[in-house]
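Let us practice reading a record.
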Amino acid sequence: MGDYYGGCDVGSTTGKAVIVDGDGIVATALIPSRVDPEETARVVLQAAVDQVEALDGVGGLRRLVGTGYGRNEVPFADENISEITCHGVGAHQRDPAIRTLVDIGGQDVKAIALHPDGSVREFAMNDKCAAGTGRFFEAMARIFQLSLDDFSALSESAHRVVPVTSQCSVFAETEVVSLLAKRKAPADIAAGIQAAVAKRVFALARRVGVEPRLAVTGGCAKNRGLAATLHKMLGTDISPLDMDPQLVGALGAAVLARRRAG
């Protein structure tokens, strides 16, 4: 039986776990976050461990690394490592050519510049406001009475961009409600929302320097409208990662666990 290593990323909206062995990924799990971060970690880790017959519980992992905003609440973790480092390692593991990484999570946005070995050269983040994060898009989808998937595709049918100028998440919601009341086309408003978020991401990315190849991680990487707008604004292709972009941080944590185990 080989050795197994775990990474657990406890985020504000989802909990993620990845288990690797000496060859690669053997199990993944993703769940909505519980109120208690420790419970999130326990449940998602168990869901991943249950997929590996050779493992007898979480204690069977040779090493476990916790990451994410709730990384200090990961039970059994041998070590806690910043999600910025873990996302860089995870993205590099899937594509060593990536030099710029944008992570758009549930409550913050990060722009990360990577060295050729996947280590972090520089980073910038916006964690003072929910605007431009997963929470923001959830609020926008509720206003349009759409699922997140349907909202992410809505802007693709826009004929023009209706600007959304508010920099605050709360005021932006009020502005969008007002635009809908004025009978502006929902798709055009959605395009304005995507553009407003893309501008914030662009400003962060410029601070660290945008170098190809560029990848986007986090739940918002699945937002088709945002990806298309970012592509235009950043002036470079967004490289797809061959895995769920929400799992990249947990993968990086698992890879680091394997490295640290020696």
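A brief commentary: The helical segments are 37-49, 83-94, 134-144, 148-154, 169-181, 186-208, 224-234, 248-261.
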